[in-house]
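JOB MANIFEST
job_type = single_chain_structure
chain_count = 1
residues = 271
[input]
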Amino acid sequence: MRPGRRSMTTAQSPGSPITMIDRVASLLQVFDGHPRLTLAQIARQADLPRSSAHRILQRLVELGWVERQGYQYRLGLRMFELGSKVVQRERLHQACLPFMYALHRSTGLTVHLSTLLSGEVLHLERIGDWPERGETWRPGGRQPAAHSAAGRAILAHLTEADWPDLTFPPPATVYGVRTRTQLRRDLERVRDRGGVAVDVQGCTAGITAVAASIGPSGGSLRAALSLCGPAETVPVQEAGDAVRIAAMDIWYAASGLTRRPARVPAITRAC
């Protein structure tokens, strides 16, 4: 490379995506501690040219991230909405942990907290060491929503119009869901069971899982609590009752509502 010539990997052009993201971030950060600011104040505090700040603000106003009132700007309702979702998710996570530990102690099964992410479920938390192998069952692991009990528990709480784009990769076993028609039939069974989804070796050979959605039908939370264990030892009915009760208790705790927690039934696993 010639001396004095800068590589595109080490320098960004003014209109590059990374540079633009940095500018938007620096602009939004100036609102921390300042409810309303003028264009001149925003440009000065964000260290941006006035024309650039004005152009970015105009686009953020169109998107609802920023609102303009006369000569002043403030954060918009879209930012509040996104922030509220983060707070709700964190509140849910903190509310879940005591119930997840109690559920693990009373059942001896592994407990997962999962959320719907596009067409997959993402496992956020796990209490229990089994299964020892299988990356898709660990925190951070993903499974197709149509294949997993947690995914189907969440989907059963949504109208089909609200479903994300679902994929139907070849299931790991002959018991897995293969088509949208099969999925619809399974979701009807989930609703008939009071919102409890059951997967017997459909997602992974040798594993049975039961799950219940957390929160009301049609809500924006899209999270589920599930139990899993060796297929030959999990008592499906008792495990389903336990996870449904715990999911309801978690929702009340996360919402700050007073409710006497129901007693989670102890489970006697088959030998």
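[summary]
The chain has seven helices and nine strands.
The first helix runs from residue 17 to 29.
exit_status = 0
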